[in-house]
Each structure stands twice: as C-alpha cells, then as structure tokens.
Amino acid sequence: xxxxxxxxxxxxxxxxxxxxxxxxxxxxxxxxxxxxxxxxxxxxxxxxxxxxxxxxxxxxxxxxxxxxxxxxxxxxxxxxxxxxxxxxxxxxxxxxxxxxxxxxxxxxxxxxxxxxxxxxxxxxxxxxxxxxxxxxxxxxxxxxxxxxxxxxxxxxxxxxxxxxxxxxxxxxxxxxxxxxxxxxxxxxxxxxxxxxxxxxxxxxxxxxxxxxxxxxxxxxxxxxxxxxxxxxxxxxxxxxxxxxxxxxxxxxxxxxxxxxxxxxxxxxxxxxxxxxxxxxxxxxxxxxxxxxxxxxxxxxxxxxxxxxxxxxxxxxxxxxxxxxxxxxxxxxxxxxxxxxxxxxxxxxxxxxxxxxxxxxxxxxxxxxxxxxxxxxxxxxxxxxxxxxxxxxxxxxxxxxxxxxxxxxxxxxxxxxxxxxxxxxxxxxxxxxxxxxxxxxxxxxxxxxxxxxxxxxxxxxxxxxxxxxxxxxxxxxxxxxxxxxxxxxxxxxxxxxxx
Length: 498
Ligand code: GLU
Ligand code: ZN
Hints:
CATH architecture of the domain at 344-497: Orthogonal Bundle
Bound molecules: glutamic acid, zinc ion
Shape: elongated
Number of helices: 20
Distance between the termini: 70 Å
C-alpha cells in the first residue's frame, strides 16, 4: 500500500524532470528522472516533463529526441510535457520567453531585481580585492542602489546591463527532504544574474519561474544544484508577492554518483552513457532496478525487484545523503536476474534485435525462427545482457562455426582427432530425438579413448559451435540437427588431420 503523501496539507504531488537537451542521456540524468517518476507514481501525483532549452548554443534537437526516446524506452512516462501536452503548455522553455521577460520586468518594478552595469573586468578587480582583504568575494551589490545620474552615465557610455536578483540580507533556511535542515548565510549567497545583457533569461530565473507556474510541489534533483536552492527560495518568495507562485516547493537533493577511482561520475564518462546500456541489452526494468539503488534501497536483504515493487516502496525520505557508488558488476548481476524473470516468450522476443543486423554476424535469411524458439530457453539462464545472445547462438545461424583460437588451442589437442572420429561414428547411429542418447554416444566415444565426459565433449563442442563454452551441448546438437552437426565434426577432423 502507498503511504500517505508527504506533502504539506493535502496538495497532490507535482514533480518535474527538466533536463537541458545537451549531449547524450546519461546515468545521472536517468537516476533523477527515475526518482521523480517513482515519487510521482508512488503518491499518484503528476510528473511534469519540461525541456530547459534556453541555451541555444548547447541545446540540440538530436539530444531532445534522444531524451524522449530514452524515457519511452525505460517506461518512464510523464503526465504533462512534450507530446502529451497539459494545462501549462508549452513545456519547452524556448517557447516561453515572453513569460520570463514579463516576470523579469515585474521583479524589477517591485525592486526585487535591478540592472547591473558592472563590466567583467570591474567585477574581477573587485573580487580580487575582496579576496585579498579576506572578505566574501561574491557580487558586492555595487549596482543595488545606483542614482539616476549614475544610470544615465552608464547608458551614455553604451554599457550593457544584466538583470540581477536582489537577495534578502538574511539567512535562508530550508529543510531538505534528504539532508535535513540547511542554512545559508547571506554573505555566501550574493545577488545573482537572472537575465543576460542581450535579454536572454538564465536558468536561475526560468527554472523557478516554471516550477512556480507549473505548481511543482517537490523539487528532487542532484546535489550539484544544492547551491542554487537558497537563491531559488528567495526568488520564490518574491514570486509569491507578485502572485506568480503559490508557495515554495520542498527540495530534496539526490546524492552524487561516484564512478571509477571514487571520482564523481561525469556525463562524459563512457560508462555513464545510457545508450551504452541500451545497446548492450540491459532490460529497462533491470537498469531501473539498478539505478534506483544509487541513493536508495528497497530492503536490507533484497536488491532485485520489479518496477511496480519500486513504485510501491519509493519514498524520498528514504534517500541516503551519502554519495552512491556506480558498480557495473552489480548492475549486470541485477540485469541477469531480470532476464531470468522474463516469461520465456518475452525473453525470446527481447533478444530479437541482437539476432538481426547490425548486431548479428549472419545474413538475415540465415536466421531460423524455429531453431531460435527451441534454443531460447537454454540461453535465458545464461545471459547477463541481451547482447550476449549473439555469441551463444551464432553456431545455429552461421554457415560455419566461428573459429575461436583460444578454444581450439584448449580443446583440439593430441587425441582430439581420434576422439572426434569415434564420436562421429557413434553419433551417426544414435537416436537424435533424444539428447540423452547423444550424450551416451559421446560418453561411449570417450570411454574408448579413456576420457571422461567433460574431456570427450570439449572437441565435439568446439567442432560444432566453435567455442569451449556455450549452451548445453547435446540440446544444441539436436537443434542444429544431425547432418549439420556431423558435417562440422568432419570439417574439424579435416583441419586437424589436414
Ligand atoms: N535543466 C537543469 C539541469 O539540467 C535542471 C536542474 C533542476 O532540476 O533544477 O541541470
Ligand atoms: Zn553591477
């Protein structure tokens, strides 16, 4: 059962996922999306998906499309946003510029914001001086109270002005849903820019303005954004005065994800790219299961659970403030469990992309649906990621098995030819309707040469499948068929006795 919403009063939960469309979707981004989604679903709330594309230089349509595609693939659906619409449309910030211009103007009119004419050099000189004197080095409020003459002077010089938000001169305190009560002293949160000199609104303005207009109740986002929270809370208070916001949302900052060498997982890390997991054949459920453990846990003694189970238990209050470690081996182990949990039919279906071009090394017409259906159950228990399937079943669809040198070196030693010759004879007269009979045949061939089953079957396996490891051998032989199996043993004999 879902527990009671942890919102003030009875306000229904409204959370948002608001990425900037830059680069490829990465693990950190998906973790944020997942936690917001799970929180919304747990509380039967609303997930708003908003695109923060106000940085024309870095944003791209390609990245935007990938984001949507990735969320769809993962099954993280949204209630308002691109493609689904909603009462607060549009959900792309690049289409909302008039709203931001209007709010910025009203913030200035009410004294919450002001034009700042300082040049970059002036700011730098004063920052250096403040540092040298041991004073706080953030913006010093220089333009907070310019006289009309000073403004006229700057304008006559043709100086551009940015718009700066005026921080209240008192500490900002809030209770982080993950970290508890936090207080920021005013000297650490100086007045900050909200509109560029060219009139373009900044993240610092558009993000809280949209959260306010979209009536977001909980902001769950990465710890890297913690320092922007006191600024946003102060801005919210001004927005409440203007009638733009109804209240201040609650904030919860999700822990950092650490990668190799205990360094923060960066989106440029190759292991951080979502596409990589998708191409390797992680199941969406397996990946979501794993990503949910980056800062949260389902139960002390259970790491593998379904997405429905995740939703039923997810609570932001249970998120751990300590950095989470990204552990690829654990992700793979969890994914393997999810592969085993699939219905056999769903498993066979899920593998299909890896049994076709461009993953499969055989031509499309060599793929044999019946053989695949027959072999799939043996493969299901063996895969870590779905892309492993290709090497496990290529012996069925390639005209000739792959030649794996290490396998040949290991299995095709002295005596292998004799064994193969005997095995071929016994297999030729065996009952191919029974895998057990094929095993008896190889066992008997081994006895002739003083070899136990394990040693006797290795050359047979390499001759037929190309590798020393793979699916259960006798079932594999059956599915490949008598004639093809025997002719591969002959071909291997020809190579050995060449
Ligand atoms: N667009 C911001 C980002 O990608 C959103 C941050 C937030 O959640 O407030 O980092
Ligand atoms: Zn200034």
